[in-house]
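[09:14] KT: can someone run the structure on this one? pasting the chain below
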Amino acid sequence: MKHIFVKLFCVALVLVQGFAATAQKTELKYLSGTGSEQPVEWQFFCTDGENSGQWTTIPVPSNWELQGFGKYNYGHAKDGERGKEKGLYRHSFEAPSDWKGKAVNLVFEGSMTDTEVKINGKLAGPIHQGSFYRFKYDVSRLLKYGATNQLEVSVAKHSANESVNRAERYADFWIFGGIFRPVYLEAKPQQHIERVAIDARADGSLTAEVFLQKPTGLETLKAQVFDLSGNPVGSEFSASVSKGVSMVQLQSHIPNMKAWNPENPNLYQVTVSLISKGKVVHEVTERIGFRTVEVRERDGVYVNGVKIKFKGVNRHTFRPETGRSSCKAFSIEDVKLMKEMNMNAVRMSHYPPDKHFLEVCDSLGLFVLNELAGWHDAYDTEVGSKLVQEMVTRDVNHPSIVLWSNGNEGGHNLELDPLFGQYDIQKREVIHPWNEFNGFATQHYRAYDYGAGTYWNGHLITMPTEFLHGMYDGGHGAGLWDYWELMWSKSRAAGGFLWVFADEGVVRTDKNNEIDTDGSHAPDGILGPHHEKEGSFFAIKEIWSPVRPDDSDITADFDGKIKLENRYFYTNLKECSFSWKLAKFPLPGSSENVKTVTGTASAPDIEPGQKGVLQLSLPADWAGYDVLYFTATDRFGNEIYTWSRAIKLPSDMIAKLLSKSESNNALSFTETNNVFRIKAGTVEYSIGKTDGMLKKVVNEKGEIPFRNGPEMSAGLTAFKSLEMKNYTDSLMLICSFNTDKSDSTRMKEFTWTFYPSGWARLHLYYVPEVYDKDFDYMGVNFSYPEELVTGVKWLGRGPYRVWKNRMQGVELGVHQKDYNNTITGVAPLIYPEFKGYHANLYWAKIESKEQSFTVATSTEDVFLRLYTPAQPEKVYERTAPAFPAGDISFMQAIPPIGTKSNDPWNMGPSGKKNMFFDYGPYDNWRTRSKQMTLYFNFDAGQ
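[09:31] RB: done, structure tokens below
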């Protein structure tokens, strides 16, 4: 018992000493959960809609719709469709007895929207209007200390102030109700530091504005900078407090500090102490980063003296099950995904985020545009002035914030602009998204190379705060290469912000928990509602990689050198690491595994904005492998990107396939009135005598219904003749078409060749639909029943489909995916989508419920088309590219995809349709035609 008593006494002593050491700090008591992942149950009454009219409970924080209350509505809903319900909350809590005599505030981090608060039946203060802002009430005189207190909160989903509704409730996003961010009590001494605003610059200079409550003029303020390990940096600095002064300025210069930027997000802490009569009365610690933001007129945005181009995205605070209610884990996940896409910036659309999201941007490294709500309309000056103050004073010290946005797309109250600088010690500039304002042109969804003497071609800093609208599968990665290269080349282009990070699909508790994107309004993300990665995710990752290799092919003379450009802004590539892998792929149907050999490479010394060479030390037999991969990794161990370069071409792979399938089987043929029947090994082919088309394929297990090709994907055909040639090792059918100068036929000739192994070869000569005119696609089609397909395994670039203007983000390898009928952005989501165009085909095994079969090519740059993707109920022509007839196609040209706002041709060179023009002699159609060679294996043993 003695030992136990001693131990308890020691623990108690430590606790008392710890409390004494921290008693002068602000104390917090959470009444709600700290976030959506750990809510606290409060009593709740909903006045209308689902589960209304009775007292029950609800988790706080939350949006009540996601808990089964009230009425869902998107911001575009008509007045009669809008949920106008109120939520009534009650919660009992105990106020610590030792808080008596202190200044105690009741703090709401965010409530949607008009919020009336009572403590023990008495109003805590005026009704707060505005959803996304921290507000507080001094409740010191209303509390019962050491006893139970009753908190009552009334929240109206829509505001009594119409400017609030127009600014944030009638917007292009889901509208929710409820106390959706944490609620807590904070206790400070009566004489205390109210807040601290800090300007820490890249040269080490630091200015702090310290706002005080109830100073007597006998106090001193002291401050010390620490690193995040608690080690002091620089010397302590101080200032005296004069009587009647509520704000005191502290200044210092911190030597040898490391500046903050997104590539090296160095952070520090500043502790400010209020001292009276030699004792610390109150102490506040703020996390900061040293950095300097400059906007240079007719030039650009500079951070720490470096000109920046923002690789950014718009981000809603959103999850399907919790709506706008969030937690730090969600913030970390979002920022990590942005960093994984090689982004360096995020815009807070269209409201300030949770505090923890900005903290994560500070620590992991993202530039932030923080935004006052205002969607096509603005807050009035009275309400807006309070909200600007609440936003800026909460967020002023975050180094990640480099610009403020006053509303969005016309929701700009100009009377509010000066207030940002009034509360921001750093005097960051204010922009008006979608406007020309304050030296910026930020208009949304402008076309590629838009304007004569304006925008890309004008003299303002051009920075679209929304571009490449990603509705369904359009935008984002599609067109981004063209836009980004344009932005990179234009001196006054400051980058831009994609719309939008993730689909805003909400779980409808009133509709059997289905995920609803309000039709075409909210499936705009690079990610799905649950952060499913779409194809554009990987395209963006490649396009925005700060390590940019050139696109050279690997030839027999390859010496291991890869040319690189450093598109970092602050990082030398010697701070990165590089590795490589050689891979040899098994042939289709083989049980062998991929054979690989790996190695590392010394990081080259290449400064930002410069070019150099990465030297790979490959083994002597490197040319015997099929593909080279090389990977760049950043200084934190995160993959920047992995690129692939083909060593073996499709013709090399075909040679291996055919040599493996050599056979001494006999070849034979018979004919009827309509078809030639060719028996090649165990496979029988039926070829139409009047068109040369494949009519039927049969092996010893039965028919494989792959037929009706090669059909031209576009254009006319004029069959002329079919000629048979019989050789000892093959049988050939040559199908000829009219080739007169006046004839408009597109197919010129194709030849079927059949081998004893059962393989069939198809060689084609054809031309596009119209010379000198643009066209959607070019290739040949076959039919195969979609209902039989279970999947595909193929060697090519994948696993995601491509468009003409989104060829990035796919790598050469053996890929496999099961059949699905996913409409991008429309539940149920299965990624990657099965249907569509797939790049750089070598071979593909079509997996079937009946019999699988293999197709291959010896021609480079052939696209494998797998069926036609399904479309949403409301089809936008711009986001629904053309597909040919038939089911499975082999293409040498495919269409681009557009966005909700732009046709693909208006989004840059790669968004234009295809064009084919040949300068060869007109009378030699072979030199003027496209050629393609395909191979088919229908053997039953696959």
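[09:33] KT: thanks! The mean pLDDT is 93.
[09:34] RB: yep, looked fine to me
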